[in-house]
Amino acid sequence: MSAATVASGAAQLLGGVCAAPLLPGLIQRAKAIMQGRPGPGIVQPYRELQRLWHKQRVAPQPRTFIYEVTPPLAAGATVAAVLLVPVANVAPPWPVGSDLVTLFGLLALPRFALALSAWDTGGAFGLMGAARDLAISVWAEALLLLSLVVLALGAGTTDLRAVSAATATSHIWTEPAHWAAALGLVLWVLVETGRQPIDNPDTHLELTMIHEGPLLEYAGPDLAYLQWSAAMRHWIVLVLATDLILPAPHAFALRLLETAIALPLWCVALAVIETFQAKMRLLRVPLLLGAGGTVCLLGLGSWLLGAHT
To answer: 75 CB contacts (<8 Å, ≥6 apart)?
Structure first.
């Protein structure tokens, strides 16, 4: 196993699993600075996880095994997704592989499990948030598939490493299909990270919350699993956006440096969007995602008509 493979595997484990809470912490810190308030520190998500791990487990009644297995299942599926996404286009031969379709399923599994958990407990807020999440996910997953199809055209495969290599060259910026897929992928990042204008992660108001709704029935270590899983999703989608959107140098060390620089910049960009863009009305979200899907279809059409030459 080469040194680059070892370094990439270490980045996946240390970055995607251990350091992932720094990403939402950085977003919150950047938002606080731009809004002129003290705000929490970057390491505040770690303090929250530590507090939850030491709290007593509390569970609603009635419940079944669905409620019990959802937090570890969500965390386990997300860890598998972390190992599936290569860092700097290099990854050890993990058993999960590196296929985009597999990643799609691993990211959908926690959402499906949380929806079942909300139905299991029957809480009003949990059911409402799960229903909203599933309704939006129909559009978001279609948008993701369209974006990945357009990005995979140049590689001729759905293998992440091959797709990343095909989109790494600088001439990709001259292709309309790449710009269309990049726009769709950015909109999908907003959905997966639960950020404005799609969702508001800072509130539990019943009129606005989406992703936070199914979490209201959990507390203690169970909630820590789910919050840790949400932080890892930030890592996954931002690393994926870096690999598939930005051009990359050939040297592994430079690609790794690019990823290390791009992740904080993505977080600051998300903070800027949340600061200057109000949350959209729920019924307008499908229109936004549908517009992104339309742009991806136009990009696909430009590729099929030969504009990629």
So the answer is: 225, 226, 228, 229, 232
Fill in the amino acid letter for 139: W
Whose CA is closest to 18, among 238, 228, 266? 228
Q: For residue 7, tell me if it sits in a domain.
A: yes
pLDDT digit string, tens, across residues 124-164: 777 887 888 888 888 888 888 888 888 888 777 788 888 88
Residue 99, beta-bridge partner list: 159
Asked if residues 106 and 232 have their Cβ atoms less than 8 Å apart, the reply is: no
Give residue 36's domain range.
3-51+78-91+132-212+228-304
Q: Specify the pTM.
A: 0.89
Q: From CA 231, how far away is CA 228, in angstroms rounded?
A: 5
Closest CA to 168 of 97, 255, 98, 265: 255
Radius of gyration of the CA atoms of the chain, in A:
19
Kindly state whether residue 85 falls inside one of the protein's structural domains.
yes
Q: Which of 151, 176, 173, 171 is nearest to 162 (CA)?
A: 151
- Number of domains making up the chain: 1
DSSP-assigned letters across all residues of 116-153: HHHHHH--HHHHHHHHHHHHHHHHHHHHHHHHHHHHHT
Does a structural domain hold residue 42? yes
DSSP letter at 90 equals B
Q: pLDDT below 70 — which residues of the chain?
A: 1, 169-173, 203-208, 307-309
Considering only CA atoms, which of 267, 285, 276, 255 is closest in space to residue 231?
A: 267
How does DSSP assign 4-28, residue by residue? HHHHHHHHIIIIIIISTTHHHHHHH
Both structure tokens of 168: 């790494």
